[in-house]
């Protein structure tokens, strides 16, 4: 569930999100939530139709209280951007003006560079039904637009804010391949460990006359070792697999097929390395 | 407003989006809309709480009818992924298993490579309240997780689907800086055009004794030319500016300040290149 967690760092910096004449409190709340998800905090409203504060916005914000409480309301767009140095306008349609058009990735990188340089920036989002007027776009420095399905191009404002907020967050990462948590760190197996596993499984198979006829034995061993080599098993994975072979290597089943007294999950993953 | 447009290409390919035990029809509808926005079309539901079809989903889908109509329902996750070759599980929290954890960018690139190679792929999204179980995550090949504000980390499923769909769309672009439309193409000005503008403005200023005292004239001209050079004006921009100077260069105002008979916008942008 959504919520703030006082033990974890609360990111709250970066461009102001400026909603021009938003109509529904729910949308304002979802915008606040999207901003909070990706570390933005400064929300400005120009002439919101249903006034401010808004209970519907509060409810839809899913505890993004720091964004909702800090929201500022302005009578005009000119006042809302007065203290900013650089402003993007979001729009889904081509305008006649001279302004440069940027992708969200490029816009976020530009906003990040200006943020690092100490500039104040903002991003304009238009009304639910028809976006920004040409006069409003003209107040911005550049345009940002989203790469969308040509036949289904319209994003709602909460979605558009989510994507720009997400790109803002990514623009601050050294590496877009980084993740907030990683797989459990596993030591790669050594060749000795892999060969030990080959030896175990081949011995158990040999005891059951698997390698037959003798002329095919070298090829069978080749194939088996290729199958077991390709995944590049880690040390704990080899440990899991050796436990499986040890169990299968018992002389007889304890129960006949389909008669096990308790359900066996059949999923080896995550069973730990203590099976051998 | 959202809607399909038969004149424009409808993208409908790529990984299946698989919602495990979704509760609210509204969320399923918003997922369908997000998928349509970024060219995905194959929605699968595992055991949806309120059944299927859903009027609420249809309403929230904002005319993503091709997604809603093609939605398939499965009793179990195993059945829902049975025909797929490679599956990601989305999760916001670290799991104990051995699975690799990927960022959305890397996951989308992997899905794109597998799509190009003819594989069928899917992405799992968990329940609204508590996501996917460990057993469900275990059915996937790898994990994908989002870079979020540590203190405000929870995305709703429509937001999570939106981000993965957006990254899927971007993974098919040659250049993430590309935009669906561009600024009006403008010829860069030649130096001759720039120098002609210098000459015009300097002559008009000289006629008003702007360049004063004589010892400072070279520095004043240097500074003025530096200000006018830095923006790298295009040919139509120079044309607009020459029109402005021509107008200002009239000997007298036609009306006193504040007495203009009609409001002047004062915004030179976008006024066209026919002013000179």
Topology:
2 copies of one chain form a homodimer.
Chain A (H helix, E strand, L loop, with lengths): L15 E5 L4 H13 L5 E4 L8 H6 L4 H6 L1 E3 L2 H5 L4 E5 L10 E2 L1 H13 L4 E5 L8 H5 L3 E3 L12 H15 L19 H16 L10 H13 L5 H14 L28
Parallel strand pairs in A: 1-2, 1-6, 2-3, 4-6, 4-7, 5-7
Helix pairs in contact in A: 1-7, 5-7, 8-10
Please sum up the structure shown.
The structure is a homodimer of 276-residue chains. With 276 residues, the first copy, chain A, is an alpha/beta fold.
Explained architecture:
Chains A, B: Its EC number is 2.1.1.200. Chains A, B: This is tRNA (cytidine/uridine-2'-O-)-methyltransferase TrmJ. Chains A, B: Homodimer. Chains A, B: Residues 256-276 are annotated as: Disordered. Chains A, B: It is an enzyme of class 2 (transferase). 2 copies of one chain form a homodimer. Chain A is elongated. Chain A starts with 15 loop residues before the first strand and ends in a 28-residue tail after the last helix. In chain A, 36% of the residues are buried. Chain A contains 10 helices and 7 strands. Chain A has 2 domains: 16-171, Alpha/beta knot (3-Layer(aba) Sandwich); 183-276, no CATH class. With 276 residues, the first copy, chain A, is of the alpha/beta class. Chain A has a 7-stranded parallel β-sheet with strand order 3-2-1-6-4-7-5. The model of chain A is unreliable at 1-6 and 266-276 (pLDDT under 50). In chain A, helix 1 (25-37) packs parallel to helix 7 (157-171), helix 5 (104-116) packs across helix 7 and helix 8 packs parallel to helix 10 (235-248). At the A-B interface, helix 1, strand 5, helix 6 and helix 7 of A face helix 1, strand 5, helix 6 and helix 7 of B.
